[in-house]
Amino acid sequence: xxxxxxxxxxxxxxxxxxxxxxxxxxxxxxxxxxxxxxxxxxxxxxxxxxxxxxxxxxxxxxxxxxxxxxxxxxxxxxxxxxxxxxxxxxxxxxxxxxxxxxxxxxxxxxxxxxxxxxxxxxxxxxxxxxxxxxxxxxxxxxxxxxxxxxxxxxxxxxxxxxxxxxxxxxxxxxxxxxxxxxxxxxxxxxxxxxxxxxxxxxxxxxxxxxxxxxxxxxxxxxxxxxxxxxxxxxxxxxxxxxxxxxxxxxxxxxxxxxxxxxxxxxxxxxxxxxxxxxxxxxxxxxxxxxxxxxxxxxxxxxxxxxxxxxxxxxxxxxxxxxxxxxxxxxxxxxxxxxxxxxxxxxxxxxxxxxxxxxxxxxxxxxxxxxxxxxxxxxxxxxxxxxxxxxxxxxxxxxxxxxxxxxxxxxxxxxxxxxxxxxxxxxxxxxxxxxxxxxxxxxxxxxxxxxxxxxxxxxxxxxxxxxxxxxxxxxxxxxxxxxxxxxxxxxxxxxxxx
Amino acid sequence: xxxxxxxxxxxxxxxxxxxxxxxxxxxxxxxxxxxxxxxxxxxxxxxxxxxxxxxxxxxxxxxxxxxxxxxxxxxxxxxxxxxxxxxxxxxxxxxxxxxxxxxxxxxxxxxxxxxxxxxxxxxxxxxxxxxxxxxxxxxxxxxxxxxxxxxxxxxxxxxxxxxxxxxxxxxxxxxxxxxxxxxxxxxxxxxxxxxxxxxxxxxxxxxxxxxxxxxxxxxxxxxxx
Lengths: 497, 225
Hints:
heterodimer, A: alpha/beta, 4-stranded antiparallel beta sheet, 30% helix, globular, B: two-stranded antiparallel ribbon, 2 strands
């Protein structure tokens, strides 16, 4: 077990549930405990009475799992539980608390045009949104040189090549790229192989490598063209909509930080959400009732919503083993795009007065992309950055200082003195997030894609990776949660038939 | 490619798609004076970086770019938690990638990555990183007493017999000098617990006699080399 997973006896499950909501504990209703539910059954035997079997167990209290739980409740189903390994909700969304009610994000954070599922969720939860700041000049740093230029809220990919990709993407369905009539052809090459035929000038190669690293999670040589086209297709075959801030998937931010969505949903679900309950083993998933083993005991349910990424499913033992195709898909799923994200907090977004937008691109340095992540009312100035994990020291103090020097080169001396610094290296923070996005290598989707969606017995697969639209994004997570809830409710209806 | 579009009143450079902002393009966007000079300088630097990359790591697109995130520039990670690949023996690198793919060695990141690579890619990466010059582990800050204790343990266990006189690694035995302290600690702990195994079980035998504090000392000494 990881250090952060507190092993607790069953009796303290209520305490854990309430404690973990990142300071929201006070607002939680004390009555909303798990006591109303059929409880954990005998841990030794895994046996229990029929009445102890829940309609649905949901594994994972990220956006997908909590959306599914919320839908179940809205449909009148109360017989469910959400099991979360960590002592917090939100999965790959995580807020850094900046104090005074302000937050900066360590994980997924944006909403863009067409991402209607997550936008609707925010509205329903009464969570506000505001535009990501992009106005002003972007700073480019290379070795000792510095220049700044207005990039119009975009990353400025060559529009001619982008347009070619947009055309090709029309035939690649975002939710099932392997069904494209040209799937075999597109999946036989990497984006890099395809770009290599376009005679990209050496200096532009750096741009493509940076762009794909930020949006796709790996290098052009390692990302399948088919996968990339499916992402462009998600963005309605509009390259800017995928990549840009203005008019793109990074356009809108969430007041209170993106994790607030999960925190609010979990608050409303109360004791149905159990934190620090990593699932170790799942038995009898074929015919049910399914026995779900956690350190706190065994939970039994007729249906299970697996709201976690395919590679993370590998950490659960299945008895009997999952179908071979599914198993192989999970084993090979590209879990190799972990991220390290940093936040520098300043008294004010001082760069704005200088006509700068707070963005930095650095072709050979730790900063992949730095951007202004200040609160809407500018109570603080915040520079967030996607960094190359290992181009900065492990020690946060040393990393902070090195980044401050880079920011000073870009924005001036004021940048040397942040008020505070936060960072999160997702790969090392705990073992419950393996990867940010999934950079599909050539050959994967056509060989294993078919194994992604079909339920295995009583197991319903959810999580952003399974979404038909905006897979890999917060929006995809919400969509996948709605979808899984429908499947689970259908199973409930059939049983009651 | 190096396009600067003029849309309305604002200048908009094609940034990522065109790092090199040529003077001509800059002039087209009506830049002048110091701003123009800065763009020219930046363009030159970017150009130089791109050409250096091609010289050092071969034609683009490069598989090795996928390794930069965790393993650092040219395999010289600045963190202590992720392994430094620069100067690791080619045979060792190849063996580890195949061990990840076969399941002999396990890591959620590396297993799926190794499984996704062709033999050619594995071969290319092993060759590439073995040729990179290992830089000193400059970000490591050790505890003097622990480093000294670690040195005695490394000598006492005769690590040099396999790993080389200067712990520089050879054939299937990894370079240990200057390796990340956190990574070394993890791996030694895994050898001790049996989670990681080596052919012949030498590492299991060595680590069986090391306490967790010993392991920390050994890791600190090796990282400081």
